[in-house]
Amino acid sequence: MENILPVSDLRFYNQTLNDVKDGQHVVLTKNGRAKYVVSDFAEWQKMNATLELFSEVQKGVTSHMTEKSMSLDEFKTNIRNNNDGE
User: Fold this and answer.
1) Average pLDDT score over the chain
2) Separation between Cα atoms, residue 11 and residue 53, nearest integer Å
3) pTM to 2 decimal places
4) pLDDT digits over 18-49, tens only?
5) Does the residue 56 lie in any domain?
6) Cα torsion at 63, 66, 67, 72 (round to 10°)?
7) In a domain, 78, yes or no
């Protein structure tokens, strides 16, 4: 369940920070609308890692849809040719 507080409650920031639990966050509102999120740093890192993963997956999907694919034999030949040059 989301913990939603008005941003004015930050004057009691110790209590606000205590409300930030592992896997949860506190949404701060300004003028009745969600404006800020206070989150545990480890949760923030996980969220960023997830976004990066989804971004890389999207690049792969886009590449698959737009670029010419190659057969397994073409791939093996390509790998062999690249390794011969080393």
Assistant:
1) 85
2) 37
3) 0.57
4) 777 777 788 888 898 989 888 888 888 999 99
5) no
6) 80
7) no
Number of domains observed in the structure of the chain: 1
Tokens of 71: 């057969």
The answer to whether position 14 is within a domain reads yes
Please report how many Cα atoms fall inside a 13 Å half-sphere around the Cα of residue 36, on the Cβ side. 11
| Residues 23 and 45: beta-carbon distance below 8 Å | no
Rounded-to-integer distance, Cα 52 and Cα 58, Å: 10
- Residue range(s) defining the domain that contains residue 32: 3-39
Task: Report the distance separating Cα 21 and Cα 36, nearest Å.
Answer: 16
Residue 10 counted as domain residue: yes
Q: What share of the chain is helix, strand, coil (3-state, %, to 5)?
A: 60, 20, 20
